[in-house]
Amino acid sequence: MGTELPDDFKCPISLEIMSDPVILSSGHTFDRASIQRWLDSGNRTCPITKLPLPAHPSLIPNHALRSLISNYTLSSSPPRSHPSPSPHTLLAQLTSRSSTAVGNLDSLRTLHRLSKHNPTFRHQITDSGAVSVILRFVGSADATLQEAALSLLFDLSLDDDNKVGLVAEGAISGVLAALRTGTDSCRALAATTLTSLAVVEVNKGTIGDHPFAIAALVELLKDGRGRGQREAATAIYTLCSFPENQRRVVRSGGVPILVQLAGSGVERAVEVLGLLAKCKEGRQEMEKFNGFLQTLVGILKGGSSRSISHALATLGLVSANSERMCLEAIKEGVLEVSFGLVKDENEKIRRNATTLIHVLQPYR
Q1: 201-209 and 160-168 are packed helices; what angle lies between their axes, rounded to 10 degrees?
Q2: Its pathway (predicted)?
Q3: What is the C-alpha to C-alpha distance for residues 242 and 199, in angstroms, rounded to an integer?
Q4: Is 129 helix (H, G, I), strand (E, B) or coil?
């Protein structure tokens, strides 16, 4: 008969055992993935108390609870007749001169499987000083080995206290090599890893400062497919909360590509445009690009709530700094569309539509 887990170990949102518990400013603890989805959906209240949260809520790792969950899970697990190999054993196999490509692949995949949902195991790997070994395989010419190593590196990046250390050990160079020359799958995974590393504020500038980082993401945005484009857009979005990275994306030719993707229904592209519109260079590029205004008007008329909100914000920023854009927006019927949106049930849409109306009305 299995032992029932304490309720405190379960996320109040997903009702599943927490793998990465974090504390919200309300004092309540949630699994990071669940509360991040809640916040990414535009919610700014605590799911439990319903009280308002700051504009940029902090998620503080609950190390004590994570340790309790890990220890409880290990102690309540039935004994195994064939225990999993330790990280040291698997890493020793990777560095052995007699190790084969098949053996290395098996070791990397086993490390990935064991670390994916186990923070304790991930810390054992990083504490063993194995990051440099893993990075060697991230730079492998063998696509299968490279993907396995990238998957493991991404696992290690899930813990906030690992993110800065991974960057310090040279993870960015290895990830960028895969981003620039890897297979479609490796490039997408490399972009995802950059997103994870960029969650920590100090890493945003470090990544942006690295030669070719932003340019490589814009290149994937341009020539990638499906998942690759989405992951590149998400990485750029995460990095662009750092103002200098906004200008780097513009200089790398990101605006025309993002406008085209936004017109194709890529929601994240609209969100990135909203960030780029905060810098002068971004607004100037948008104003110059033929079809920018028409694309955003199309989103206002038929996009998702999230896309409409960001399209309104983008138009508001660009129009507030350009009389010509105000006049063109009025010709395209933006004012009438905005009047219709001030009654929308989404509070962000109502607020952004009201702001845009205030910008455009003097030119009516």
Answers
A1: 30
A2: Protein modification; protein ubiquitination
A3: 11
A4: coil
- Residue among 159, 155, 133 nearest 145 (CA): 133
Residue with tokens 């010419």: 141
What are all long-range contacts of 224-227, with beta carbons under 8 Å and residues at least 24 apart?
224/184, 224/187, 224/188, 225/184, 227/184, 227/188
Per-residue pLDDT of the chain in tens (364 residues, 90 and over written 9): 344 567 778 888 888 888 888 888 888 888 988 888 888 888 888 888 888 888 778 888 887 777 777 766 655 555 454 556 677 788 788 878 788 889 889 999 999 998 888 888 888 888 888 888 999 999 999 999 999 999 999 999 998 888 989 999 999 999 999 999 999 999 999 999 999 999 988 999 999 999 899 999 999 999 998 889 999 999 999 999 999 999 999 999 999 999 999 999 888 999 999 999 999 999 999 999 999 999 999 999 999 999 999 999 999 999 999 999 999 999 999 999 999 999 999 999 999 999 999 999 998 8
Tokens of 274: 């909203």
Instruction: Give the Cα separation of 310 and 75 in Å (integer).
Output: 48
Q: Residue 162 is encoded by which pair of tokens?
A: 């690992």
Cα 41–chain centre separation: 14
Closest-CA residue to 270 (of 252, 257, 284): 257
Cβ burial 237-261 (10 Å sphere, 16+ → b, else e): bbbbebeebbbbbbebebbbbbbbb
* Alpha-carbon torsion (293, 298, 304, 305), positive or negative: positive
| Strand pairing class (29-31; 21-23) | antiparallel
Task: Measure the CA–CA gap between 167 and 272, rounded to whole angstroms.
Answer: 24
Q: Token pair for residue 42?
A: 């535009």
Residue 5: Cβ-neighbour burial (10 angstroms; 0-12, 13-18, 19+):
middle
Neighbours of 267 (CB within 10 A): 16
Task: Output the six-digit token pair for 362.
Answer: 């003097």
Helix/strand/coil for 21 = strand
Measured CA to CA, the distance from residue 19 to residue 21 in angstroms comes to: 6
Distances, alpha carbon 78 to alpha carbons 82, 113, 124, 243, in Å = 12, 19, 22, 51
- Strand-pairing partners, residue 30, are 22
